[in-house]
Specification:
The complex is a heterodimer of chains A (889) and B (190). Chain A has 40 helices and nine strands. Chain A is mainly α and 889 residues long. Among the domains of chain A are: 51 residues, no CATH class; 109 residues, Phosphorylase Kinase, domain 1 (2-Layer Sandwich), CATH 3.30.200; 200 residues, Transferase(Phosphotransferase) domain 1 (Transferase(Phosphotransferase), domain 1, Orthogonal Bundle); 122 residues, Alpha Horseshoe (Serine Threonine Protein Phosphatase 5, Tetratricopeptide repeat), CATH 1.25.40. In chain A, the strands form two sheets. In chain A, strands 1-2-3-4-6-5 form a six-stranded antiparallel sheet, with helices on one face. In chain A, a hairpin with a 7-residue loop joins strand 3 and strand 4. In chain A, helix 31 packs antiparallel against helix 32 and helix 38 packs parallel to helix 40. Chain B has 190 residues and is an all-alpha fold. Chain B has eight helices and no strands. In chain B, helix 5 runs antiparallel to helix 6 and helix 7 crosses helix 8. The longest helix of chain B has 29 residues. Classes of the chains: A mainly alpha (889), B mainly alpha (190). Chains A and B meet through helix 1, helix 2, helix 4, helix 5 and helix 12 of A and helix 2, helix 3, helix 4, helix 5 and helix 8 of B.
């Protein structure tokens, strides 16, 4: 790989090094042998075997001595410098700024330096009143006007966070030489882990410390701020034992703005790998559930002294997570009492110190962690954000349940989780059985998840903890039942035995009746669940019948007052799925009447939403909008609003948009976007869709710049959630390019389509028709951009691909031909253009359904306008005539 | 440029089979990703982070193999490739630094009190590269092992898989290679 070597030192006397390289074969053979000998025998052996060659003996001996030292990888500093050089990072000298001013503050001394910049102790420079503060000056970077504006906006949001446990953001700005800075409350305290160890806090006290942290994080989440970088060094404990969180939301503030060039995402982010959630490591957006994960790592570390993936050395956390590795349960991560050496993942403490600092012993601590705390932390540490606690509040409440001695939800969830993992683990064998099991398990899986969420929502909504426990038990029985049903069909045991899904479900129904005869509440719940599974599989009649049985049971023999409303809701949903809209409308009404007096607002909410959907199917948009709106109002708002509720909001926005109320649609969609911006991870797709919808509305309202910005963001999210080659992502890009074209930004539009072409080539088989259609769009845009020569190239490929994959007579192929004709005409190839136009017209003219095929009509429409714009009026006329007259025969 | 996983896999296969041109093509394909990943790691708080090649390489793998890494067979080959790429990045850097020092060109990055250490690190890298090239001429596999272990931070098992040899061989040859490198370092830095 190179030829210019380090010049050899000519003046050096022949050294061992020369012996090594000149007589390498001999040296290596001897060295290999010597290394197998015990150390004390080596010298004697070498003396004997090369008695006539002391230089060789000495060389090998000194080589053998070298191996006692472990050679490590290149030093961190040199790596950093080398890579930093590669990418042009400029390192500043933090001391340089001491004595200078940042706004009204004078920097007094350096408190610390990190990747983002340096923190200084500072004093107010106007001596009117003395006040000290911490000032964080960020590293100089590409400080464009846009960055500064964004910084200002974010800073205002952060300044609105007002909580005793959050270090207050006081001020901020940009120094004259262009470095953004933040002025924060100066906190005098110890890192949370040091504080806990120094005060020898027991398990309960450590947990309570974290509860304080969680309350502060919840406060921020309510203000739509995610911390993104929770770690011990960002959490201080003051003399009086109160916690204070630093750097709230700073990580986002420093994030590079998204958009602009979606094709070249650099993903410059600030995170701490040890505490970062998998989605952050993968470069996905952070959410409230990201903070759930980081808090869990923090608690894990405070309790065990180690980290969840600490005991698997040799590969990165990320890789383990991606490969489906499970974190070690806290109770299993404790270092054995009698060994020396550090516990899993911890930096310094030996086992004795771990137990001493917690005023406990190995046995006692393990007993304390096993069960509840294991389950709670494992849930919060799930790799998929959607499988963690949905909010920090839910996480905290489960911990509080544990402290109060109540049943914790995480343990019930662990069963559902087992089911989901089971399904994932056996996905391939399951598929081999014809996909049937996958369908069944998949639906049950979805239900299990939904039901978990419901449990959470219910507990949030309901005051009576007794009721919550009862419901949790029912849900637990349900999941247990399902797990058993499926585990007894472990495909690895039953390969070859093609038990059909229908038989499996039939057996489930039989077991419900035989085994649970005396438990009507659980029976009703299971009947409804299996009803849903049937509906999901397309056996809607049977599903409806099962739901009817569940309703009858709830009406006659279940004492729980809310059971009837829930049962009716399930039945109505099944009816709606079967497109029995009139009956569905009736039963939704019954559900609303049954749920209202019981104060079961969730059932009422979902019933009204279902009713709204049904009315929309019945083509009564005004009534539908009223119901959807009313239902949404009954549901919890951010951050507890569920995925499905957000989708409902999107549906409502679509309805009011079609009714022409653009402003109402705008505000509904903007609401989704604002909330999703901090809670995207569980469904980046919803976020992308809401952004796209909002862009459409903004464009209709005439705000083209904003629409363009929103499209960019939608595309960014869709790239992550769906992949750049997904048809929906391509559609978003197409929308974006259209907006750009309208604004006359042709070059940018070209770049957008180039990206789409690349994406289709990557995502679809070589030469797929989708590539042809993207190439056509690119070609058309090149024509608009005044680059006809390139358009000819591009469109030729498009036509070739179209001929090959959709046929030479296809109407699309003929439209592509006409576009190629336009490009040919613009480059002076008149004869070729004429031939292409004629050919295209002939093909389109013989297409019988031409005027009914909306896609082709739209394509010809666009073609004709472009031909007119390019002064090809004569050539355009026959194409325009096609649309007016229909195919000429 | 069409960068799909199967192309990478193919190139890795032909590179592993000795086709050195594939390496250049591979570098072209994934260099940007490697740099971006490196960039991100350099952005993180200096205090709490150790930039280490193992993490870089693993992350690059995860990213390029897609989230479902399991589907992709050439994991170890890929690590080996990243290790070689890392060697190139580091050595190019060291050479440039060295040339700047000699030619009196401006050193743009003021690496304050660390500059002495950086100088010695650079000398160290150059000495290692020198030794590695000599080693390459005498036992190519040993040089490969050094790339994987030293520049890529790969485990012994991954190295063995990548080079199609046994764990025991990797352990034994790595031990000897380390001896040669350490000796070269000592001599080179005197």
């Amino acid at each position: 790989m190179s030829d210019d070597k380090n010049p050899p030192d000519a003046e050096r006397t022949p050294s061992e090094r020369d012996v090594v390289w000149d007589r390498w074969r001999e040296v290596d053979r001897l060295l290999e042998h010597v290394l197998d000998l015990p150390e004390h025998e080596r010298e004697g052996y070498l003396r004997a075997s090369c008695s006539d060659d002391p230089a060789l003996a000495a060389t090998v001996l000194s080589l053998a001595a070298e191996v006692r030292f472990e050679a490590l990888g290149p030093g961190e500093r040199v790596l950093r410098a080398a890579l930093g050089e590669e990418i042009g990072i400029v390192l500043d000298d933090p001391e340089e700024l001491v004595g200078t001013r940042a706004g009204a503050y004078r920097l007094v001394r350096v408190l610390g330096t990190g990747g983002m910049g340096s923190v200084y102790a500072a004093e107010r420079a106007d001596e009117a009143f003395e006040r000290s503060a911490a000032v964080k000056v960020l590293r100089r970077s590409a400080t464009t006007q846009e960055v500064v504006e964004r910084f200002e906006l974010e800073r205002q949001i952060l300044a609105s966070l007002n909580h005793p446990a959050i270090a207050q953001l006081i001020d901020g700005g940009v120094t004259p030489d262009g470095r953004p800075f933040l002025v924060m409350e100066l906190v005098d305290g110890l890192r949370i882990d040091e504080w806990a160890d120094r005060h020898r806090l027991g398990v309960d006290e450590r947990i309570r410390l974290i509860l304080g942290v969680m309350e502060a994080v919840e406060h921020a989440h309510r203000h739509m701020v995610v911390h993104r970088d929770l770690k011990p060094s960002n959490i201080l404990v003051r003399e009086d034992g109160s916690v204070k969180l630093l750097d709230f939301g700073i990580a986002r503030l420093l994030q590079e703005p998204t958009g602009l060039a979606a094709a070249t995402r650099t993903g410059g982010r600030f995170l701490t790998p040890e505490y970062a959630a998998p989605e952050q490591l993968l470069g996905e957006p952070a959410s409230t559930q990201t903070d759930v994960y980081s808090i869990a790592i923090l608690l894990y570390e405070l309790l065990t002294g180690g980290r969840p993936y600490g005991s698997h050395p040799g590969s990165s956390v990320l890789e383990q997570v991606v490969r489906g590795g499970e974190p070690t349960a806290p109770s299993a991560a404790l270092p054995p009492a009698n060994t020396s050496g550090a516990p899993a993942g911890s930096e310094s403490l030996g086992p004795a110190a771990v137990y001493a600092a917690r005023a406990t012993s190995h046995v006692a601590l393990r007993r304390r962690l096993r069960g509840d705390l294991d389950a709670i932390l494992m849930r919060a540490l799930r790799a998929r954000p959607s499988e963690r606690y949905s909010t920090v509040a839910a996480f905290r409440e489960d911990i509080e349940r544990h402290l109060a001695g109540h049943a914790v939800l995480a343990r019930g969830d662990a069963r559902g989780y087992r089911l989901r993992r089971f399904v994932r683990r056996y996905r391939w064998p399951v598929m081999a059985l014809g996909g049937v099991f996958l369908l069944v398990s998949g639906s049950a899986l979805g239900l299990a998840i939904q039901r978990d969420d419901l449990i959470e929502q219910r507990t949030l909504a309901e005051q009576a903890s007794a009721r919550a426990t009862r419901e949790a038990e029912t849900a637990r029985a349900t999941t247990d039942f399902l797990v058993n049903l499926f585990e007894s069909n472990d495909p690895s045991e039953r390969l070859g035995d093609t038990l059909t899904a229908r038989a499996l479900l039939g057996r489930g129904v039989a077991r419900i009746d035989s085994e649970l005869g005396d438990q009507p509440a659980i029976r009703a719940e299971l009947l409804a669940t299996l009803g849903d599974v049937h509906v999901g599989l397309g056996w809607r009649e049977q599903g409806i019948a099962l739901h009817e049985r569940a309703v009858a049971l709830a009406r006659d023999s279940v004492s729980e007052p809310t059971a009837l409303g829930k049962g009716l809701l399930g039945l109505a949903d099944a009816l709606q799925a079967n497109r029995e809209f009139d009956r569905a409308r009736e039963v939704y009404g019954e559900a609303i009447r049954a749920g209202s007096p019981e104060g079961d607002s969730l059932t009422v909410a979902w019933a009204r939403i279902g009713l709204g959907r049904t009315l929309s199917f019945l083509d009564q948009p005004d009534e539908a909008a009223v119901e959807l709106r009313a239902g949404l109002q009954l549901l919890p708002d951010f951050p507890d609003r569920s995925e499905e509720a957000w989708y409902t909001q999107r549906t409502l926005a679509g309805i009011v948009r079609r009714q022409g109320d653009l402003e109402a649609a705008d505000s509904l969609l903007a609401g989704i976007v604002a909330a999703r911006r901090v809670a995207t991870v569980s469904d980046g797709l919803l976020y992308a869709r809401a952004l796209n919808d909002l862009a459409v509305v903004r464009r209709m309202r005439g705000f083209h710049e904003e629409a363009a910005r929103l499209y960019e963001e939608a595309i960014d999210s869709a790239d992550v959630a769906l992949g750049p080659g997904h048809p929906e992502t391509l559609m978003f890009r197409g929308n974006f390019a259209t907006t750009l074209t309208e604004a006359g930004r042709f070059e940018y539009a070209v770049a957008v389509y180039e990206r789409s072409v690349r994406a289709t080539r990557e995502a679809w088989p070589e030469g797929h028709w989708r590539t042809a259609s993207q190439l056509m769009q690119l070609g058309a845009t090149l024509i608009r951009a005044g680059r006809p020569e390139e358009a000819v190239q591009t469109l030729s490929v498009a036509v070739d691909l179209a001929i090959e994959h959709i046929g030479t007579h296809h109407s699309w192929t003929n439209v592509y031909r006409a576009w190629l004709g336009v490009a040919a005409a613009l480059t002076g190839r008149d004869a070729g253009a004429a031939r292409l136009f004629a050919w295209s017209l002939e093909g389109l003219g013989s297409y019988d359904e031409l005027t009914e095929d909306r896609s082709v009509v739209a394509m010809i429409d666009a073609l004709v306008s472009e031909m007119l714009a390019q002064d090809l009026g004569d050539e355009a006329a026959p194409f325009a005539a096609l649309l007016e007259d229909g195919p000429g025969r | 440029m069409n960068r799909d996983t199967s192309e990478i896999t193919q190139l890795l296969t032909s590179w592993s089979a000795g086709d050195e041109e594939s390496f250049d093509r591979l570098i072209e394909l994934v260099y940007d990703d490697l740099r971006h990943i490196a960039h991100r790691h350099l952005n993180v708080g200096a205090r709490d982070t150790v930039v280490d090649t193992t993490v870089l390489v693993h992350e690059a793998y995860v990213k390029l193999a897609g989230a479902d890494g399991a589907e992709w067979a050439g994991r170890a080959q890929f690590f080996a490739f990243c290790s070689k790429a890392m060697r190139r990045i580091l050595i190019d850097f060291a050479r440039r630094k060295n040339a700047e020092k000699r030619g009196g060109a401006h050193i743009r990055v003021p690496l304050r009190d660390d500059s002495a250490t950086i100088d010695s690190d650079i000398a160290e890298l150059l000495a290692i590269e020198d030794a590695l090239q000599r080693l390459e001429g005498r036992n190519a596999r040993m040089a490969r092992i050094v790339e994987c272990r030293f520049f890529g931070g790969m485990s012994v098992a991954d190295t063995a898989e990548a080079l199609g040899t046994s764990v025991r061989t990797v352990e034994r040859e790595w031990t000897r290679a380390r001896a040669y490198l350490r000796q070269a370092l000592r001599d080179g830095l005197d």
